[in-house]
Known about the structure:
The protein is an alpha/beta fold and 537 residues long. The protein is 49% helix and 14% strand.
Amino acid sequence: xxxxxxxxxxxxxxxxxxxxxxxxxxxxxxxxxxxxxxxxxxxxxxxxxxxxxxxxxxxxxxxxxxxxxxxxxxxxxxxxxxxxxxxxxxxxxxxxxxxxxxxxxxxxxxxxxxxxxxxxxxxxxxxxxxxxxxxxxxxxxxxxxxxxxxxxxxxxxxxxxxxxxxxxxxxxxxxxxxxxxxxxxxxxxxxxxxxxxxxxxxxxxxxxxxxxxxxxxxxxxxxxxxxxxxxxxxxxxxxxxxxxxxxxxxxxxxxxxxxxxxxxxxxxxxxxxxxxxxxxxxxxxxxxxxxxxxxxxxxxxxxxxxxxxxxxxxxxxxxxxxxxxxxxxxxxxxxxxxxxxxxxxxxxxxxxxxxxxxxxxxxxxxxxxxxxxxxxxxxxxxxxxxxxxxxxxxxxxxxxxxxxxxxxxxxxxxxxxxxxxxxxxxxxxxxxxxxxxxxxxxxxxxxxxxxxxxxxxxxxxxxxxxxxxxxxxxxxxxxxxxxxxxxxxxxxxxxxxxxxxxxxxxxxxxxxxxxxxxxxxxxxxxxxxxxxxxxxx
Length: 537
């Protein structure tokens, strides 16, 4: 494994995210801390001295891990968390089949490595935590897994309809067998295939929830790295979140104004990632469907359910598990529960955190340091070999395949086609006026025919130029096929590899230990989150 990197400027990320990476000073109005200044770690750590939920969280994490794995390293992390000076660094991700896309792994590795870095800077124990955002009810968004074929990409989808419940309530049914079979049909048999199949089959058992299976898989992948897992829909965490949920109701107006102010400011300069709403809560109705809570004056509604503010507060107090936060409230709950120095965010999350700076003080809190996650492209040796034979940089393959092929033909052509045909056409255009004048002297009625003949000449030349290009393209067919193969591998489905490909694809080829090896390499090379990494395998 070799590590290289390139600038985010070459890649399809938002202007806001690129500014966050390269010119953080321009975004200081939207975030409390600079993620690239180690002083931020010390300042944020000092702010957390009054944290007082440690005993309750240790119990909650212990209960949650009873249903998952609990390695010696994870037990050690729980012991570290019991230290009154301990802090955490958190990342979060919604449930995904077989671990979701590669960026789930990258977020987790970033969190683990940052925890180690923060320990060395603060001299205090820092624990990495993976927060499973399992309350989302958009089932279609997570019901797939991406696989690279020899020359193509497959997003293998699960033929199961979501019920409108949070993913933590969705049950693995009989349709999963078909998905599993199709997924493995797209992967080659390797020395690691049988053990991976066994592991995933044990994680994704019929009757399990998708959330529990995802948690089990992530836990097993990173248990030896000491990651602790927490699930937002788990009852023990809900019970500890009641005060924040209630305040989100009693302070609705302040929260709306706080989010709206920053949202308008950030939209004026960059973009607004998430629309503000009249509340930041969902309600699980009698069918456990997740329904948005709206407010009209002093009345709160969710489907057929209606509450006054007082009755809604009482409902939260007695049944907190029926309430679910939106993307703005989830981070506040998370940082209420944990003494969070930093949160590891994807580009979209980084953007909506920028809308939240004034929301945190409503809850008597402060936004933690927001760290960009590791962003990376895995470059396999077979792809690297053919990449070297072509005149493009890695990031060029983010273009449309048609544009890449045209650019290659222009670079590779044995004659300057555009120059040859350009001179030919210009010659015709230059000669036509003189010819038209002389023909008009003989017969003025032929003037239209002269123009038509010129157009026909030019049209035929364009056709001929196309045939020449096709001939060159045919001669360079091997290289064109290589371009297509590289593009599919590096930018599958037209987007970044990290957003499309399942980590199981990589593990099946290189073994389950690939992520531990990557963690070691990143730590040795001093992880730099301001760069996009190229991981050569």
